[in-house]
């Protein structure tokens, strides 16, 4: 392993190992996003279904904190290794000599076999959408988890999460922030899921078309599902 790799990837981990861990943590985070979305979509159900769901989570006690710490660890690992790999790749590209940059007959520019012209927009901006998601997670925690005084439901133990969601998204700026963040998340998942499957050896020439379509479908479902909530609050469909 070259010194460039060892300097960027922590604890002597190989670049291949780091990419595998990024793929695995990414898939774990996608599963969480799906579960989180399904929970939030209960805001469309009549009555206090969303409040009951939130109460069940809160009643898990120590197990909820174990899950939170585990999720935070996965998130930090994913972000940290992604930054390390991005820095390593940038250093490697900067160190290339001119004869290592191939100009193919098609006019496409390749560096280490990577085509900049054929790369998708989502893949080119993975680090940027990742930064948007990271900042949004901090904002989301401050907005709905840490800062607010949760209103009770008629003096009951239940927290009126539904009222809190409606109140939050009734402000167009707040709703706009969430919508932009969910668009970034959808773009990130679109490329990230396919990239993770390729790293894990599950995206081959024969499976590539199906994987690409599945990535588009998954990103669309998550994007539409999450964006539907602030839009429906703004349009009084949820009230």
What report would you give on this structure?
There is one protein chain. The protein has 239 residues and is mainly alpha-helical. It has one domain (3-234). The protein has nine helices and three strands, in the order ααααβββααααα. It has a three-stranded antiparallel β-sheet, with no helix packed on it. Helix 2 (15-40) runs parallel beside helix 9. The radius of gyration is 21 Å and the shape is globular. The termini are far apart. Mean pLDDT is 82; it is low at 1-6 and 96-118.
What's the helix and strand layout?
Elements: H1 3-8, H2 15-40, H3 49-58, H4 62-94, E1 101-103, E2 109-111, E3 114-115, H5 121-124, H6 126-146, H7 161-169, H8 172-199, H9 208-234
Antiparallel strand pairs: 1-2, 2-3
**C-alpha end-to-end distance:** 58 Å
Radius of gyration computed on alpha carbons: 21 Å
Helix content: 55-70%
Uncertain segments = 1-6, 96-118
Strand order of the largest sheet: 1-2-3
Elements, N to C (H/E): HHHHEEEHHHHH
**How confident is the prediction overall: mean pLDDT?**
82
Largest sheet: 3 strands, antiparallel
| Share of β-strand residues | under 5%
Tell me, briefly, the overall form.
globular
Structural class: mainly alpha
Q: What is the count of distinct domains?
A: 1
Tally of DSSP helical segments: 9
Number of strands: 3
């Amino acid at each position: 392993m070259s010194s460039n790799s060892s300097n960027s990837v922590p604890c002597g981990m190989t670049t291949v190992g780091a990419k595998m861990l990024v793929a695995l943590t990414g898939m774990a985070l996608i599963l969480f996003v799906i579960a989180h979305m399904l929970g939030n979509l209960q805001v469309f159900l009549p009555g206090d279904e969303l409040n009951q769901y939130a109460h069940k989570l809160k009643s898990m006690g120590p197990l909820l904190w174990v899950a939170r710490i585990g999720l935070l660890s996965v998130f930090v690992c994913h972000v940290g290794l992604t930054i390390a790999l991005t820095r390593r790749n940038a250093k490697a590209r900067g160190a290339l000599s001119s004869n290592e940059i191939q100009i193919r007959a098609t006019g496409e520019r390749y560096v280490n076999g990577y085509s900049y012209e054929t790369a998708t927009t989502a893949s080119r901006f993975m680090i940027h959408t990742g930064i948007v998601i990271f900042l949004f997670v901090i904002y989301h925690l401050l907005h709905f988890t840490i800062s607010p005084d949760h209103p009770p439901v008629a003096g009951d133990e239940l927290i009126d999460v539904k009222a809190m969601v409606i109140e939050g998204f009734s402000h167009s700026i707040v709703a706009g922030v969430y919508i932009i963040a969910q668009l970034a998340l959808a773009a990130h998942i679109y490329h990230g899921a396919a990239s993770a499957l390729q790293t894990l050896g599950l995206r081959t020439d024969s499976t590539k078309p199906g994987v690409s379509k599945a990535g588009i479908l998954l990103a669309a479902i998550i994007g539409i599902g999450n964006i539907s909530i602030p839009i429906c609050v703004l349009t009084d469909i949820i009230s």
